[in-house]
């Protein structure tokens, strides 16, 4: 029996649990009361092979989901990245592909162009570095990523404020009624 471990990734409310629950139960359950990370287990047979499947479903609201970057990335054999097609910012999360150990030229198996092409294909930023030998490139990649993330966070905050003020206007209209033009 093979053990297969998968992890879901994606921003808050993208529908990670909905996709997984649809797979596990064939049903769509609109709201999940869960506020913790979940590990689901299922036995299945694929291509005549019996498998023990484990799927890690992080909950964005729980503080423990922060471990997503520490544990599931090592733990999982495969990932499913879910984004919400009605949220453009969901596909704009900046990702840096970093080719490290550039100093090991004699042992190189992946050429720089290959890394760059992979990054381009997946809309990632790309940089080759040597943590052993160079500070500047690493510092500037962090700074670039942090600037992009700050821009994104600002967009999100602006959008929330805007939709918040729209709902406040709606609420005021509902309570006091729209003024009719006098005829
Ligand atoms: N219309 C529509 N709504 C969906 C779909 N999938 C999920 N939702 C809704 O999107 C919301 C978030 O879904 P979840 O599955 O809880 O999303 P999540 O990514 O697990 O959320 P977090 O755990 O908070 O990160 C819920 O209100 C779902 O009902 C879908 O395919 N279509």
UniProtKB/TrEMBL annotation:
**What SUPFAM superfamilies does this protein's entry cite?**
P-loop containing nucleoside triphosphate hydrolases (SSF52540)
Asked whether the keyword Isomerase is assigned, the reply is: no
* TM annotation in the entry: none
Gene Ontology molecular-function annotations = G protein activity; GTP binding
EC class (word): hydrolase
GTP-binding: is it a keyword of this entry? Answer: yes
Q: Which UniProt keywords apply?
A: GTP-binding, Hydrolase, Nucleotide-binding
Q: What is its EC number?
A: 3.6.5.2
Coiled-coil annotation reads: none
* Reaction(s) catalysed (UniProt annotation): GTP + H2O = GDP + phosphate + H(+)
Name the family the entry cites.
Belongs to the small GTPase superfamily. Ras family.
- What is the protein name for this chain? small monomeric GTPase
Which organism is this protein's natural source? Answer: Albula glossodonta
